[in-house]
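Before relying on records like the one below, remember that each one covers exactly one chain. Contacts with other chains, cofactors or solvent are not represented anywhere in the record.
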Amino acid sequence: MVIVIAGVTVIVHHYSLAGVLASNSRPASAAGRVGAVAAIRASGSSSAPTPSPTPSALPSASALPSASALPSASALPSASSPSHFYTLPPGAKLPSGRQCAKWVRARPKPENKGVNVRFNSRTGQHLPSDFLAGDEPAADELLVPRVNGYFTGTTKEILRWAACKWGINQNIVYAQAAVESWWRQTTKGDWGTDTSACPPGHRHLNAQGECAQSYGILQNRYPYEKSSWPGIRRSTAMNADTAYAIWRSCYDGYETWLNTVQRGSQYTAGDVWGCVGRWFAGRWRTPAALGYIAKVKQYRRERIWETPDFQQP
């Protein structure tokens, strides 16, 4: 499937604990991306809770760690590193970001998205201790301190690093990132007329009078991840690191609020695909979530990231 990147309109969500429900259904614009997320949106809608309050003090870009302090590529021989990262069960002891960096760098991958180079060379930032305040307390205690976007490399290496760090099959990560952005960190989405839902400095309107709420390779959504800004925009690693920390919170069973809102079935821990669909729909196995899951599974079967049209060195 060919995806049009120019004039991207991507509908992707990270939602927190539910309060007041608000509709997020919006048809893809004529100038938007053909297929993928836009096609899913055309067949259904999702609703989102009002986001939990987030701290107003954001980390400054100058506080981000420098790439020079990262582990060297020669830290481990390739024979000592996994060739594939698989999903680890709920509650599993996860490898550290530093260990994953060593493993990933021992098996280097070429760059196939030249547009990402400057974003791939930037690391991220730590998150406030209540970033996942809407989830069970263990999410903030065990997962949030691990998030830092502390990796640089090619786009595929960054996605492998996130898969390793959060214990999710790397092919799911590859496929989901393809659905979200065609692996382009420059992607913007969730365009709307409410400028307060767009990041400071990015509230300028397009020709349709809209500004973007979602950014990056996984389309992290600013209104629900304010304290991860600006890292989720400026660093590919931070974008992926934050997205899969949220996935892990869902997978480990910490998003019990999903059972207090509209759902297709009862939320439980250990459902890999249910937590993939929740990223899009903000709901548990609703029709919108299932449509998104089907698209990610399709790209995984096709190994879309290996096709000629996907290569943009």
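The chain has ten helices and five strands.
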